[in-house]
Amino acid sequence: MAQQTLSTPSSATTTIGIQRKPSMLRSARFQENFISTVATLICLVGLGVVLFPVFWMLSTSLKSQLEAFKPPPPWMPNTFHWENYYDALTTNPFGVYFRNTIYFSLMVVVAEVVSNSFIAFGFARLRAPGRNFLFYFVLATLMIPGEVTLIPQYVLFARLGWLNSFKPLIVPAWFGSAYLIFLLRQFYMSIPKEYDEAALIEGASWLTIWYRITLPLSMPALGVVAIMSFIFHWNLYQGPLIYINDNSLFTLSLGLSMFQTPFGGTPWHWYMAASLVTILPCIIVFFLAQRFFIQGIVVSGVKG
How far is CA 5 from the centre of its chain? Predict the structure, then answer.
């Protein structure tokens, strides 16, 4: 009897041990590897979808004019026509277009970084009656379509004598952008206010606090603003199309549109070659400044 009684816990323990043995499908390592593999496959599919238009542009840019119009067009050209790039960039004065676009984009980037950071600092730090109402009013302008203000702005700039110049494209950037103001304000509110209080005790003004304390701590967010502003205005088409008439002031977006001809005569092999060259600066800027872009998206406070 005693021997039977002692053997019972042993058998129970063995049974419990067998029941608790995890299977391979339930193991944490298998689940982690499975999730990682599925995520990698999804990323690869998304990468293929995103890069397919770039591949098609590259393939078309190396085709002859006959192959570009051939139905259905081949995936790869029979002969690589690298001279298409030289012909496309010399048919029109793309050197002038690059110079104008660089000047216009950099001027707007400086204007938007300075103006939006200054306005956002006021909304985030200064106390004034109706501050929140003014901020909500600024955000409400995001819901106004650009087509609504297009004609009044054109009439205003025409009466000021600013047509056929970059002034209608650069000067408004000094008055802020609602989205960028919101982005920088949210970042400024994550910075401890003790910095401002300590600076005020030392006798610093709010202007000094802005450019000597807040701006150095906001480099990731300012980098995001600069990258977004540069890429947007580098590819801007509607503004230059409306306000610029002189060919010597054309930007790259207007220069690319000159390849389009009616009745199906567009030289697509030149069009794709010039388009690839024009997007290279945006790609280079993004990869060189991606550290600031990622920090601006991820960082929500001050690193200690």
Answer: 74
Q: Do the beta carbons of residue 181 and residue 138 sit within 8 Å?
A: yes
Confidence bin at 165 (pLDDT 50/70/90) = very high
Distance, CA of 95 to CA of 98 (rounded, Å): 5
Domain assignment present for residue 80? The answer is no
Range list of H helices, the chain: 2-19, 28-61, 65-69, 83-91, 94-125, 131-140, 146-160, 167-170, 178-188, 194-201, 206-209, 215-217, 219-234, 238-243, 252-257, 268-288, 290-298
pLDDT (tens digit, 9 = 90+) per residue, 86-139?
Answer: 988 988 899 999 999 999 999 999 999 999 999 999 999 888 888 889 999 999
CATH number of the structural domain spanning residue 267: 1.10.3720.10
pLDDT tens digit string along 27-73? 777 778 888 899 999 999 998 998 898 898 898 888 888 887 777 77
Domain membership flag for residue 284: yes
User: DSSP for 229-253?
Assistant: HHHHHHS--HHHHHH---GGG--HH
